[in-house]
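FORM 12-B: Structure-to-Sequence Request
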């Protein structure tokens, strides 16, 4: 009897080990790119220029960095080295003002801001000139309930992550409703369904990438709105975890000039990088308040030169990372 129990225990242990190896091989990829290195950080808690109260969104162009300073109700603009340049918008309920600005996008010299509290997209020139407002409160076509992110395709059409409405809306360049992904006000974990979508990005082929926040995954749709694929944990089925390619709440994403996808992995305190077809490449960041560490990785953007910019929410700062072939911006100096 004793020998039988020992053999049974050994068999069970071998089976569990085999299953663990299979799970590791299938769903825990290894990095195939060198890690990014910490380059720079700036910011602290406060209300003065260069200080933040919950930085939530970020966008970059070849010269400047635009940061949603959410609880201060403004967008702050810096050079790539972190030198403060100007403020766009102000806190308030007026037509030109911001409630809680979230994720951002820049298209043809225009800044698009997801204005979470005011259920609208605010549009500004990069110099701060107010241009127009898109949307209103509600659950109908072209209406929003706490928009978390915005992105534009190559034709200037607008995609909005409509957070509490559990959908992504596709609008014309003029803001007219075209279609939506997801079922209005219905949480789901199937393909094309969402659990509080937080952000959206569009690549050069007009594929649409959605940060499906509390499903802990990314979903991808083609230019016609058809579901393409999804990733994040086993079967991208709302299983969170700290492993490579897994997420613990996705809050932002962006696509670089090479088509790679960078994802802000909020509770895992890191940014993960993938190919367009979801193969894990590398990651950057860890938990803490030191160099290259996050206290909640909230949003991510990539400059044309490949430098990565990310908002470090509870540390109230911006972090930048680079690969060894990318030159670091000197703090306070325009590139």
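FORM 12-B RESPONSE
SEQUENCE OUT:
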């Amino acid at each position: 009897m004793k020998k039988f129990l020992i053999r049974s225990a050994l068999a069970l242990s071998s089976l569990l080990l085999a299953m663990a190896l299979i799970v590791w091989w299938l769903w825990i990829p290894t990095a195939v790119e060198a890690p990014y290195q910490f380059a720079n950080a700036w910011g602290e808690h406060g209300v003065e220029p260069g200080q933040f109260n919950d930085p939530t969104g970020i966008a970059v162009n070849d010269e400047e960095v635009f940061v949603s300073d959410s609880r201060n109700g403004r967008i702050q603009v810096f050079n790539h080295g972190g030198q403060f340049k100007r403020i766009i918008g102000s806190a308030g309920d007026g037509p030109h003002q911001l409630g809680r600005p979230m994720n951002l996008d820049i298209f043809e010299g225009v800044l698009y801001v997801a204005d979470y509290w005011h259920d609208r997209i605010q549009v500004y020139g990069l110099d701060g000139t107010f241009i127009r407002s898109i949307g209103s409160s509600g659950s109908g076509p072209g209406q929003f309930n706490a928009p978390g992110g915005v992105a534009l395709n190559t034709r200037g059409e607008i995609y909005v992550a409509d957070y509490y409405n559990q959908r992504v809306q596709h609008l014309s360049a003029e803001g007219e409703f075209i279609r939506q992904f997801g079922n209005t006000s219905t949480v789901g974990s199937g393909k094309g369904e969402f659990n509080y979508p937080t952000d959206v990005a569009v690549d050069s082929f007009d594929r649409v990438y959605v940060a499906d926040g509390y499903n802990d995954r990314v979903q991808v749709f083609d230019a016609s709105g058809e579901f393409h694929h999804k990733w994040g944990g086993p079967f991208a089925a709302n299983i969170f975890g700290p492993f490579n390619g897994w997420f613990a709440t996705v809050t932002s994403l962006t696509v670089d000039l090479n088509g790679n996808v960078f994802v802000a992995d909020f509770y895992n305190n890191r940014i993960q990088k993938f190919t367009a077809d979801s193969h894990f490449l590398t990651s950057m960041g860890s938990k803490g308040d030191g160099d290259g560490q996050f206290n909640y990785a909230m949003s991510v953007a990539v400059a044309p030169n490949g430098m990565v910019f990310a908002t470090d929410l509870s540390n109230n700062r911006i972090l930048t990372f680079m690969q060894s072939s990318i030159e670091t911006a000197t703090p306070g100096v325009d590139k």
